[in-house]
Every structure is written in structure tokens, then in C-alpha cells.
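Demo today. Your pick:
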Amino acid sequence: MDNQHIASAFDRDLELIQARIMKMGGLVEASILDASEALDARDEELAEKVRASDRAIDELENLINIDAAQLIALRAPTAVDLRLVLTVIKISANLERIADYAKNMAKRTSVLVQLNPIHGSNAALRRMAREVQDMLKDALDAYIQRDAALAEEVIQRDRDVDQMYNALFREFLTFMMEDPRNITACMHLHFIAKNTERMGDHVTSIAEQVIYLVTGETPEDPRPKKDLTSIDPDVAPIAPAGREA
């Protein structure tokens, strides 16, 4: 009877954590789409909504970490159960980072509304963000369904995101060489593209965690990285006088 009580308590605790993971995932999906739409429409109000929602996402990650630590301390899970708790912690960390990149997109949108638009860039960035959002949805579905095959498919799709980024990188270089007045806008747009590419990397990490959860093994093959650039602008400032939070 005691073992049954312990198992029931563990299941209830785990259900609460997983419910928070799915809520967090939904908020992050919405942040990606909202950040993309805010950029496309130069909508500062929607961009501010993305920045505000990041606080709720951060709070969910904090609650998940607290709940997971308590579950480990009180229930002492082993084997598959312990693997599940550790997977949840890593998935929440990746979701939090994706939300940070969406917030950065929103911040740059607030700057870009003051600059001349770059022809064709919004549509390409929107397609890239949409692909990442679809990958995230499938990665979370793979987690819920314990579907390693779907998770592997998500990993392979990161190659498409990398190729989209490479194409945008070349386009922005061309725009900047053709007219120096495009440099500021193109640099901001390039950082947005790089942030989106990094979102895809974190979605891939979630998919890898799903495979670990289902099989007990981490994928051995290297990711199919197709980012051919060597610039890492993640720490670049949003504007000469601005600062990343």
C-alpha cells in the first residue's frame, strides 16, 4: 500500500511538471510567431507583448526546476523515472533560451521601425520563424507521444533552417555592399536571422532529449549543421546606444 501511495504521489507531481512544460511550450510557440508578425508588420505593441511574455516563461522555468528538485529529493526516482525528470529540466532550459531569442527579435523590431525596410527580408524571416515554430510543435508532440522517430525527423529539419539562414546572410551582405545606408538595418535583420537559427538549434536539443528519454541513449551522429558562416552575433548590441537585457 505504501508503495502504491508513493507511486501515486510521484505520478501527481510528474503530471504537474509536465503540464507546466506544455504550458511553457505553448507560450514559447506563441512568442516565436508573435515576434515574427511584429517584425513583419512593424508592430511595436505586439513586440512589447513578446517581451512581456518572456517574464511568464522565465517564471515557469523556475517553477519547473523547483518542482523537479523537490520530486527528486522526496520521491528518489530511479531508472526511467529519473531519466524523465532530468529530461524535463533540460527541455525547460531549452524553451527558456528560445524565448530569449524571440524577445531579442522583438527588441530589434522596436529599432527597425525607425529604419528603411529591406526588400524581401520580412517574408524570408517569417518563413524561417514559421519553420522553427513547426519544429518546436513537433518536438513537443514527440515528447508527449514518446515518439523517437518524430524527434529524429525534427533534428533533420534543422538543416533547412540553417540553409535559410545562409541564404539570408548572403542577401544581407549584398544589400550592404550595394548601399551603405542599408548597413544598420541589415545588421539588425542579420542578428534576427541568427537568433532564429539558434532557436532551431535549441529545438534540435529538445528532440535529442526526447530520443534520450525513449531509448536511453543520446544520438551519436553529429547534427546536420549547415550554417556555413562563422559569425556569432548573439552578444552583439541591438543598437550603438542600446543594450541587450
Summary: The chain has a mean pLDDT of 88. Residues 2-41 form the longest helix (40 residues).
